[in-house]
Design brief:
CATH topology of the largest domain: Rossmann fold
Distance between the termini: 47 Å
Number of helices: 14
Strand order of the largest sheet: 3-4-2-1-5-6
Strand content: 15-25%
CATH architecture of the largest domain: 3-Layer(aba) Sandwich
Helix content: 25-40%
Number of domains: 2
Radius of gyration: 26 Å
CATH superfamily of the largest domain: P-loop containing nucleotide triphosphate hydrolases
Length: 439
């Protein structure tokens, strides 16, 4: 049964292609939505870009027919632009006149076309509540929403015969699992002996061979002096050090070692193995709590407060003594040698970045469009790591289910050059682990 979907302004600004997301149903855009979108068209932000894209889409449809009568869409249904002279009851009105008019269009359609169900689509929670109070069906818009508890973890366990577990410890081992079709490329697997569950082996489904291979062996010195403290960290380092995997996403709560392991692997590949020209590290600029205002100095000096967590990790890896620090040694040595670079994401558009090991920390604060912009900058022989905790988001325009990090995990889980790991066990300190679990 065909429905009428009435779209709010924030839906179109969030995803301009939402016009095409309703299969063979009718899409209704109140004219007041277009008035609101017009206010954003000169912005240089993502909102401005989306506003201009919406205008181009609607102008294309206008050239094909009357938007008032309805223009056929590719999958069926009609696209219409409607207005109304109806006023909402004073008891339901508020100071936002545009919201009232948009709601009035939806109610008009519900009454004028009773045989076609009217559904109001908005990302505004309060507007959905008001619409429901007026007897209107209201829903959120999120075409790819995946609850964070259902997010792909990148890891699984399998009970197998003892022979398969033993086989994983042989040089050049490649194990063929009976249910390999249920696994994703580069998914990490813990094999457990059916008769003795404490007898285990860790492996990864090879993206090209479609067989389980053992994790990369760590040297005695570890990765830039770092050795994994638990199984998750061992899995994580395997993905970070594997040169065939060009995109790695790491999700985990505070203290699991996401950033430290990524930086250690990057420094290993840049300084020890010389596989990349430099380590490029970046973080989105979103303050926790009230911002302290403008910062003086050059770009590097402005970035220092935001990048201090990165510098702390680098100096920890450098294992500097108190005397070393007094002598002026620190992370800046790597910067001066050109082995590491700190880059604000603001200036990344238009660049092509070859032969580098890129780490984007706190990627949960990025929108899907911003993450797309970053990943499409990757050039030949570049590896990119996205790390973050979807439960600690400072960006007011994304949440735990629609941020850029989770979006990449969902989209790339079936790709052979990408891998993901979710880390749950904290190793920072007993107090940090307790706080992450209790607070």
């Amino acid at each position: 049964m065909r429905k009428n979907f009435i779209l709010d302004t924030n839906v179109l600004l969030h995803d301009p292609r939402s016009i095409y997301a309703f299969e063979d149903n009718n899409v209704i855009i109140p004219i007041y939505v277009i008035e609101e979108i017009d206010q954003f068209k000169r912005d240089l932000s993502e909102l401005g870009r989306n506003a201009r894209m919406v205008a181009r889409y609607l102008d294309t449809f206008r050239a094909e027919g009357s938007l008032k009568e309805g223009v056929p869409m590719p999958r069926g249904g009609l696209l219409r632009v409607c207005f109304t002279e109806r006023d909402l009851p004073l008891s339901m009105a508020d100071s936002n006149l545009m919201d009232n008019r948009i709601l009035a269009v939806a109610i008009d359609l519900m009454e004028q076309e009773p045989d076609t169900q009217a559904v109001f689509i908005t990302k505004d929670t309060n507007l959905r509540i008001r619409a429901d109070a007026l007897g209107l069906i209201a829903e959120d818009y999120d075409t790819e929403r995946v609850e964070i508890t259902e997010l792909y973890t990148g890891f699984t366990e399998r009970l197998v015969p003892k022979e398969l577990v033993d086989q994983m410890y042989k040089p050049g081992a490649e194990v063929e699992l009976p249910d390999v079709d249920t696994l994703f490329p580069n998914q990490l697997v813990l094999l457990k002996d059916e008769t003795n569950p404490s007898h285990t082996a860790m492996g990864r489904l090879h993206g090209l061979k479609n067989r389980l291979v053992p994790l990369l062996r760590q040297s005695k010195e570890g990765t830039w002096g770092i050795r994994p403290r638990n199984m998750e960290q061992a899995f994580c380092l395997d993905l970070l050090l594997n040169d065939d995997i060009k995109l790695v996403t790491i999700v985990g709560k505070a203290g699991t070692g996401k950033t430290l392991l990524a930086i250690a692997a990057g420094l290993q590949k840049v300084t020890e193995e010389n596989l990349y020209q430099k380590l490029l590290v970046s973080r989105p600029i979103f303050p926790l709590g009230r911002d302290i205002g403008y910062l003086p100095g050059s770009v590097e000096e402005k970035l220092n407060p935001w990048m201090q967590p990165i510098f702390d990790n680098v100096e920890f890896l450098m294992n500097l003594s108190r005397a070393d620090k007094k002598a002026g040694r620190g992370y800046h040595e790597l910067l001066d040698l050109g082995l590491m670079e700190i880059e604000p994401l603001t200036y990344i558009r238009g660049r092509s970045i070859p032969n580098q090991f890129i780490i984007v920390d706190e990627a949960q604060n990025l929108t899907p469009h911003e993450v797309k912009t970053i990943i499409t900058r990757v050039g030949d022989n570049t590896k990119i790591i996205l790390t973050g905790d979807p439960f600690q988001i400072d960006n007011p325009y994304v949440d735990s289910t629609n941020n850029g990090l989770v979006h990449v995990v969902n989209r790339f889980k079936s790709e052979k050059i990408a891998a993901h790991i979710t880390m749950a066990k904290g190793e920072r300190s007993a107090l940090a682990e307790l706080a992450a679990n209790l607070l």
